[in-house]
Amino acid sequence: MKATIRKFLSLLIxxxxxIGIIYYQFTTLTPxxxxxxxxxxxxxxxxxxxxxxxxxxxxxxxxxxRWKFALQHLGYRTKFHNDLxxxxxxxxVNLTIPRSGEISRAALLKKYEKVPFDKAFGTVVAERIVDxxxxxxxxxxxxxxxxxxxxxxxxxxNLQFETLLWISLGGxxxxxxxxxxxxxxEWKIIIKLKEKLSxxxxxxxxxxxxxxxxxxxxxxxxxxxxxLVMFYVTIFxxxxxxxxxxxxxxxxxxxxxxxxGFTNGGLGAYPLAIAMIFSLYGISNDIGVAFGWLIWTSxxxxxxxxxxxxxxxxxxLNKK
Length: 320
Fold this sequence. Notes:
0% strand
């Protein structure tokens, strides 16, 4: 009887999670926002929307496949379907609290593959560091190619480029100082922290020591390439955005990614970020917002569907 109740609850919990996320996302929208979504959906060519979702699936697959290289280096040979489904669940959880998916990902792998939480979480943190560096490469390329446009935009918003540059430089120097202190300082508090976080550090260092580091690096770039292609393909879904150039696409991709990273899945912020950057290149605000809602809604629905299915299938495929 208890086993039946647990199975019943395991079906209800993800269902309520999905309904709650959808309800929360749409109750925060204004009638005007909902109308813009409706208009963009009516005008859209869904062939390109579907194609962008297919490209996204390659990104999911590659992220899960990349993870196995770090886990194998630590001595854990996990089942690929578990890696993939925990990744899908982590994307779903990120829609609630930003970056909370990384914790759930490590926790699920501990539950179904017996990988220690601290080591699994360490590999995820290492992934995020690599992802951040690759994204930084996109930012450098985008801002270098569009410096004049961005500089003019900052001046219009009363933001000094030099101030942002000094803030970024100060943050980087503080980060370097922290690394130096962490590696070379022999203070008692540092030593105790290293002992407590030994598993986490081992997971983070797995990238540097693994034998498959080049395969790991290939998948890291492939993941971000799939993200960019997903974004690029979607521009053809609306006639007003079908002719924008690749440099504009890259800038929209950068600002859209920032919106997702600093919010719960880009809720509300994603279409505004897209509209803001597209407006610099002569695309009307309404079209930018409509495009942002189109790509955000389609990708969010994919995240919810894959996350819920994965949450349901994980206990089924791991009965033993």
